[in-house]
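Subgroup meeting minutes
Present: P.N., E.W., G.H.
Scribe: E.W.

1. P.N. recapped why we're keeping a running log of single-chain structure predictions: easier to compare across weeks, and new members can see raw inputs and outputs side by side.
2. G.H. added today's entry (442 aa).
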Amino acid sequence: MSITFADLPLRPETQAALAEHGFISPFPIQEMVLPIALGDGDVIGQAKTGTGKTLAFGIPLIERVIAPLDSEWADLTAKGLPQVLVVVPTRELCVQVTKDIDELTGNRGIRTLAVYGGRAFEPQIEALNSGVEIVVGTPGRLLDLYRQGQLKLKEVSRVVLDEADEMLDLGFLPDVEKIFTSTPNRAQTMLFSATMPGDIIALARRFMNQPIHIRTQDNEDEGAVVSRIKQHVIRAHALDKIEMLARILQADGRGPTIVFCRTKRTCQKTSDDLAERGFRAASIHGDLGQGAREKALNDFKAGKSDVLVATDVAARGIDIDGITHVINYQCPEDEKTYVHRIGRTARAGADGISVTFVDWDDLARWKMIDTALVLGLGEPEETYSSSEHLYQMLNIPAGSNGRITKQKPVPKTEKVASPERAAKPAAEKTPRNRTRTKKFSA
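Output recorded in log:
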């Protein structure tokens, strides 16, 4: 019999917040992490992407925070200084994690702050001076605020490192080590990652106290590929890819979709091409300002756009339920990137579809990915936008082309004139118009 959140020893306020937002039963990673984390043990959590890692560390953090509405608040000596620090690799993930934690903390008055680059320092500094209990941030901005003396870490007792493998890839490891050494009163450390390269293991050994390694992956599923995703791979011609993509986006049952590109230039061009073809497309990549990136993401979440074209770094942290398709417009660099990309779909128990375009010069790279993840997808079939098997494979309606025909506006319903007005001849309007004109001229 599976447990529910109500079975766990949580504060009544946390139980109420979980129930209010529809969280009834924990996912496997949450069920395994929570007993240890609630007991203040150090945890290394390794699980497939999209399995609920944020709540796995978020709930224990919330439970241990002394909040302004708690009875213990009166005895707290350093009121308003951060008690919890969550370190994430990207701005988008920072916003997402802050939102998830915020949902569970309002009824206790816990203040959560997101700090990341691309935004002015002043509002973040003002919020820190006003007092916060939980800080979620990217390494660079966290260290900038710390060196300025605005972010005080002496009262931080719990630190979480989320998406640790991405920190390594982005070169943030020295910054993370500096953050760890700047939290001398750390009583609990949790580290979460989809993969565990050697440098991450060395980091854990150095800064964690007898951590328990929790791994929810099956032995046959070393690459962490989500089994509920139906994966397709096709060999595509560079000049035909945009036409093929446009037809795939018209597949039956296609909902919100993420299209991945390797470069910022290709990302923007693909988004512009799709918009010109009539699709509601937006882009998110490193050349965009933070305001534009947040607007694109918010529009996608709100349904104003249903195709998000993204680079790998910018898309890290996009955690949106309901994404039906992930399309790799350019072949991923390696198997880890492939796993993270397709993991944007099939979240929260849903199914999903992934399509990977492989150029002629990417065949060797794809073979490496296929072998490393034991996908068994084999040699990609040569495919064009007119290929019959493309339509059959992805349920594309016959006759679909590379453009969406804009629907004609529905004509307005004519109002029925009243008998009095209908009885008056149209000519009567003319003198009134002339009278107004003369009056205005005078």
